[in-house]
């Protein structure tokens, strides 16, 4: 019998998870959210960032 485990790719990240994914500090990520650079959804007191928002942000970064 096969016991293959399928992992589900998350659609939303917590700010902490998003900071890790972007390889930046949590404070920097919150600053980007406060400045409106990174849009987020809010449900109650929780904030979540869409994966598509993170990908769009990375696409706008200049390669130096």
UniProtKB/TrEMBL annotation:
Signal peptide: none annotated. Coiled coil: none annotated. Pfam families: HTH_17. It comes from the Bacteria. InterPro entries: HTH_17 (IPR041657), SinI_DNA-bd (IPR010093). One of its GO terms (molecular function) is DNA binding. Residues 12-59 form the Helix-turn-helix domain. NCBIfam families: excise. This is Helix-turn-helix domain-containing protein.
């Amino acid at each position: 019998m096969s016991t293959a485990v399928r992992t589900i790719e998350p659609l939303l990240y917590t700010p902490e998870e998003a900071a890790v994914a972007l390889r930046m500090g949590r404070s920097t990520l919150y600053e980007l959210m406060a400045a409106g650079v990174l849009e987020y959804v809010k449900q109650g007191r929780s904030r979540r960032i869409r994966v598509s928002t993170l990908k769009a942000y990375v696409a706008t970064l200049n390669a130096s």
